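Hi R.,

As promised on Friday, here is the backbone we talked about, encoded as structure tokens. Could you run it through your design pipeline when you get a chance and send me back a sequence?
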């Protein structure tokens, strides 16, 4: 119920206008967002890198409906790539296709993605395309396939375990030697396309992990690049200890080396688990978002765990 409420709220422009004006809520969002400026994200990533943890940097933004807004988003992403290179950060970049024009026209989106991928290639970096809600799954996968057919190998996609279709998508996309990020899925989806029950999503997550691991064995993925920017391996994006325990046990049973799988988590969530996996020798990458368009991202984090809201409010009053 509350999940649906926060996701619905995330899409209301008037709510965004009202809520983002609140200094209190902006401060609360900082639990999940590095800051509004790239400098804040750089500091967060330097700290993660020092602990041996990799990053993926996301300039927040989605659902742009004008070419000028899409152009601004592209310019910021190109800048992000430059900053990663200049500062020597062990970080790649995540983006959303609706941020760079998918809702305006797929051709505009492709043109923009191509500029980003060329720049990323020049700077020896990798772009991860986040997955948005199911109204955009086909269009997102189409653009991703197009990029692979254009010869770009420095691009990966995200798949969501809550969608029924994902098992088939992994089998079909596997022929591109894809390096998937597998997450559970953060949006509110109808039962016609996604498992409504969390237990079924969890079960499917484990099933898909085993499928990805079979592909790791079959395809013999390249290992992670020394600077950690180009993963070249499947990424399991979850904070769920049971899913992680299932995956690590399966890696052992299938003799998959620790360097052949990446565990990914979000900035501000389960920090001790990130550190503990890293200390055990697993590759850990943290998703670090920054920028002024934090509203929708923040609402999705509340939707995943509404208790966050009460926890953050009580913390504010303790200070
Ligand atoms: C690196 C990364 C990239 C992602 N990219 C995408 C994407 O492209 N598309 C997409 O749809 N989704 C994406 N997600 C979000 C994902 O789909 C889930 O919504 C989110 O990760 C919560 O699911 P979970 O696997 O952690 O499991 P859950 O069962 O939801 O959570 C397990 C435990 O993690 C902790 N936890 C989880 N969420 C929160 C939270 N918000 N606040 C505090 N604690 C929390 C709690 O301790 C909880 O018990 C991404 C997630 C990660 C980690």
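Update: got your reply. Pasting your designed sequence below so it's all in one thread:
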């Amino acid at each position: 119920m509350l999940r649906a409420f926060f996701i619905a709220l995330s899409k209301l422009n008037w709510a965004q206008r009202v809520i983002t004006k609140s200094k209190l809520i902006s401060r609360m969002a900082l639990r999940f967002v590095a800051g509004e400026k790239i400098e804040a994200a750089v500091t967060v990533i330097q700290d993660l890198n020092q602990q041996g943890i990799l990053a993926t940097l996301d300039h927040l933004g989605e659902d742009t409906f004008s070419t000028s807004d899409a152009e601004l988003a592209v310019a910021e992403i190109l800048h992000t790539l430059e900053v990663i290179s200049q500062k020597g950060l062990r970080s790649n970049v995540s983006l959303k296709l609706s941020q760079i024009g998918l809702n305006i026209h797929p051709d505009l989106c492709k043109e923009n993605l191509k500029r980003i991928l060329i720049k990323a290639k020049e700077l020896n970096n990798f772009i991860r395309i986040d997955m948005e809600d199911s109204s955009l799954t086909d269009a997102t996968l189409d653009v991703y396939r197009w990029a692979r057919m254009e010869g770009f190998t420095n691009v990966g996609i995200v798949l969501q375990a809550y969608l029924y279709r994902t098992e088939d998508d992994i089998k079909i996309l596997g022929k591109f030697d894809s390096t998937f990020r597998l997450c559970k899925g953060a949006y509110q989806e109808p039962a016609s396309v996604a498992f409504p029950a969390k237990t079924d999503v969890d079960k499917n997550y484990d099933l898909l992990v085993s499928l990805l691991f079979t592909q790791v064995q079959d395809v013999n993925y390249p290992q992670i690049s020394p600077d950690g920017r180009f993963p070249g391996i499947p990424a399991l994006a979850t904070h769920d200890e049971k899913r992680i325990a299932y995956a690590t046990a399966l890696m052992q049973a299938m003799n998959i080396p620790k360097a052949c799988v990446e565990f990914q988590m979000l900035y501000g969530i389960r920090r001790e688990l990130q550190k503990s996996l890293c200390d055990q020798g697993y590759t850990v990458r943290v998703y670090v978002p920054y920028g002024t368009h934090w509203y929708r991202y923040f609402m999705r984090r509340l939707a995943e765990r509404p208790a966050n809201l009460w926890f953050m409010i009580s913390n504010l009053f303790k200070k």
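One thing I noticed while checking it: The chain has 13 helices and eight strands.

Thanks again,
M.
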